[in-house]
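4.2 Preliminary Data

To establish feasibility before requesting continued support, the project team ran the inverse folding procedure on a target of 225 residues. The structure was first converted into the token representation described in Section 3, and no sequence information of any kind was made available to the design step. The complete token record follows.
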């Protein structure tokens, strides 16, 4: 059984069709990259998996369970956004722990998990700082920490490295990939950058005008945009 399955998922807003009858299966523990030019439907696909948008028709399943009508919090998945969505007035520790406190996780357990996550991401010495006092790479890791602390099995990422300079982006690609493998995470990663897709993916899903044009390991993808 695939971990994530989209079956005949369509999405439109009025006359704008973002997705038309999209089928997709994502296997557990894989790094899956949604690739394609701007407007092809990558973000919409991700947001529908997350439950941030509802599909106009079709079905979304996670671990075989129909989640099409479930709210984001009940899907057991985490999401990292392009702009990081960090809270500027909160410390690194409180940014990491925000979701835990919202969910009412007991204080001691939350503190333990914040520590673990910070160590995992090399942020343990920065717990008292605020986001503005971090480097670009550290901010990016903090955004990841906020997603990982919830211990979701699936992590969705929408162009998470696009705000970094070229060198740092390269480093973070490697770092992200290592982390994903170490934790056995399933990642669905959106990018329009073909090099990034080819260097990171186990599976590349090439989208074109709201449909899956190809779905294959990087070395088998042909004529990508
Ligand atoms: P990508 O992530 O590949 O750039 P998107 O999924 O963001 O593509 O968008 C796919 C299409 O759907 C585009 O034509 C976009 O303008 C349209 N779209 C996305 N979100 C909305 C929305 N909230 N309202 C109307 N149209 C939207
Ligand atoms: P991304 O760069 O991740 O593809 P966009 O900049 O396309 O994101 O979209 C950012 C937000 O604006 C999303 O919530 C998306 O749904 C919405 N959006 C995108 N295109 C349109 C549109 N044509 N009309 C209204 N909202 C849109």
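Position-by-position output of the design step:
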């Amino acid at each position: 059984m695939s971990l994530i399955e989209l079956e005949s998922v369509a999405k439109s807003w009025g006359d704008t069709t973002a997705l038309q009858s999209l089928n997709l299966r994502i296997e557990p523990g894989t790094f899956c990259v949604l690739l394609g030019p701007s407007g092809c439907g990558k973000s919409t696909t991700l947001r529908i998996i997350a439950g941030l948008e509802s599909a106009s028709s079709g079905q979304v399943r996670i671990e075989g369970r129909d989640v099409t009508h479930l709210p984001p919090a009940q899907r057991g998945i985490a999401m990292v956004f392009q702009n990081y969505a960090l809270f500027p007035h909160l410390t690194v520790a409180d940014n990491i722990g925000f979701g835990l406190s919202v969910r009412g996780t007991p204080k001691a357990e939350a503190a333990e998990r914040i520590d673990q996550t910070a160590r995992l991401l090399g942020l343990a010495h920065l717990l008292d700082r605020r986001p503005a006092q971090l480097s670009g790479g550290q901010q990016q890791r903090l955004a990841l920490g906020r997603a990982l602390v919830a211990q979701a099995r699936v992590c969705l990422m929408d162009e998470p490295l696009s705000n970094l300079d070229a060198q740092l982006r390269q480093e973070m690609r490697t770092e992200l990939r290592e982390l994903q493998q170490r934790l056995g995470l399933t990642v669905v990663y959106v990018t329009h950058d073909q090099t990034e897709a080819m260097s990171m993916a186990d599976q590349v899903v090439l989208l074109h005008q709201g449909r899956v044009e190809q779905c294959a390991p990087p070395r088998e993808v042909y004529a990508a945009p």
